Automatic annotation (TrEMBL):
Protein name per the record: Type I restriction enzyme M protein
Residue ranges occupied by any DNA methylase adenine-specific domain in the UniProt entry: 136-423
Keywords assigned: Coiled coil
A GO molecular function held by the record: DNA binding
Length: 465
């Protein structure tokens, strides 16, 4: 049975149920390979076969007329980047073949979904979500982006079918496939949509490439951001940019030769967060918008360079909103995470920044927290209401804060500090005492952070970094 982009599918409930059954069947069927292949290698083979299962080349593979590598190369024969791009995935396929596991895996995949209820692209994404959760490596700073975050970003950015879109740290294409799926659900044509990807990892780019191909798009692949991030900007400008860059990356190799390309200040050499934020802004067309995942601490950093960059960004009006996301969403880390919405607008600078605290939203599923459709809609609706009209504060959820207030508070981007508590207000004397205690504690922490930043900078100067 063949599948293709745009093919009519059963109802969403039926599709979701079928995808869930197939996902479980895949992992039960592949139990026999565990111990012979690593989880990452097994995931690569599974995903390559699922991709081919949705392509015309599948029948040649099943019939024995070609092997998996030949089938994949044949399917991608017209694509300039594919041979080198697919090397990490093909290495896993060859290893499975050498261990005589490939033919049984092909048989397992061929038996999947006999009724054709699950589109291959959705099966691929569901399995990739599971693989990403199992193969995330602690300590690398690189984590699979949960589907809930990519769907939330797609709703907030509200892309069109004519947009040029970039994800310079694509992590298997989660943001981009969420955008494409959203456009397809809206019935919008994709023939004018242009998608560009890059990443530190060739494997991530390869998986993103296959995901998008299953949805009828062939993305442009840029060289690794190892080369482009230190220069401060991409070569082209885009309507929409998404990114979940590695947090607090210490070895991003910033170079003062490119100081003129850092619009808001040269980022510190020991942390790439504000290099990424400026890279994204510089990649936007006038009127473009972006969503970037950042650690919570990026909005509070007392490092002199980072605080100055943050201040310049706020004064220039490029920060539209900061959303505090729930904990436990990422496999491999519980670090508090925020979603920054950025804009490069030719209109007058906005007078305020929107803060949303989503910490109480969502539910626990398979030991991780996720946001459901209702949660996502609530956040997106609040953001749209604020953009189109004005928005009154909602206790425990949302508040719009004037730039003047942020400036007087040291340009800190802390949603929880500005959103009114959902609890009933105590008497004024109690409130004053609590505020005083919290202020003293915050000052102590800020002083400690500043001391640590100064120490790091002194060490870096000693090492001539």
């Amino acid at each position: 049975m063949s599948y293709g982009p745009g093919e009519l599918t059963p109802s969403p409930v039926t599709v979701d149920a079928a995808v869930g059954r197939i996902n479980e069947a895949i992992w039960h069927g592949f139990d026999r390979c565990r111990g012979l292949l690593s989880v990452s290698e097994l995931g690569d083979v599974v995903l390559v076969l699922l991709y081919l299962r949705g392509r015309p080349a599948w029948q040649a593979l099943v019939s024995g007329a070609s092997d998996a590598e030949q089938a994949l190369r044949s399917d991608l024969s017209a694509d300039r980047e594919s041979p080198a791009l697919l090397r990490p995935l093909l290495d896993s396929v060859r290893k499975a073949d050498d261990m005589r596991q490939l033919a049984p895996l092909v048989e397992v995949v061929n038996r999947l979904d006999p009724d054709g209820q699950a589109p291959p692209a959705q099966v691929f994404s569901a399995v990739l979500e599971r693989v990403g959760g199992l193969t995330t490596r602690k300590g690398t700073g690189e984590f699979h982006t949960p589907r809930a975050i990519t769907e939330l970003s797609a709703g907030l950015l509200d892309p069109t079918g004519d947009d040029q879109i970039l994800d310079p740290c694509c992590k298997a294409g989660g943001f981009l496939t969420a955008i494409v799926d959203r456009l397809m659900r809206q019935g919008k044509a994709l023939d004018r949509l242009a998608v560009t990807i890059s990443d530190y990892s060739l494997r991530s780019c390869a998986l993103a490439y296959l995901q998008l191909r299953l949805r009828g798009l062939t993305p442009q692949v840029l060289p690794s951001v190892v080369d482009s991030l230190p220069t401060g900007a991409a070569d082209n400008e885009y309507d929409v940019v998404t990114a979940n860059p590695p947090f607090n990356l210490p070895n991003w190799i910033g170079d003062d030769r490119f100081r003129g390309r850092w619009w808001y200040g040269s980022p510190p050499a020991h942390n790439s967060n504000f290099a990424w934020l400026q890279y994204v802004i510089a990649s936007l067309k006038p009127g473009g918008r972006a969503a970037v995942v950042m650690p919570y601490g990026a909005g509070l950093s007392e490092n002199t360079q980072e605080r100055n960059i943050r201040a310049a960004m706020l004064d220039d009006g490029v920060v539209s909103a900061v959303i505090a996301l729930p904990g436990q969403m990422f496999a491999g880390t519980d670090i508090p995470v925020t979603l920054w919405l950025l804009q490069r607008s030719p209109t007058p600078r906005p007078a305020e920044v929107l803060f949303i605290d989503a910490n109480e939203l969502g539910s626990i599923q398979q030991r991780r927290r996720t946001l459901g459709p209702t949660d996502i809609d609530r956040i997106v609706d609040a953001y749209r209401d604020w953009r189109e009209h004005s928005l009154d504060p909602v206790a425990g959820f949302v508040a719009a804060v004037p730039i003047e207030k942020l400036r007087s508070d040291g340009y800190r981007l802390n949603p929880r500090a500005y959103i009114p508590s959902i609890n009933e207000a105590p008497d004024l004397r109690t409130r004053a005492r609590e505020v005083g205690e919290l202020t003293r504690r915050l000052d102590q922490l800020a002083e400690q952070a500043a001391h640590i930043d100064r120490t790091i900078e002194e060490h870096l100067k000693e090492l001539s970094l």
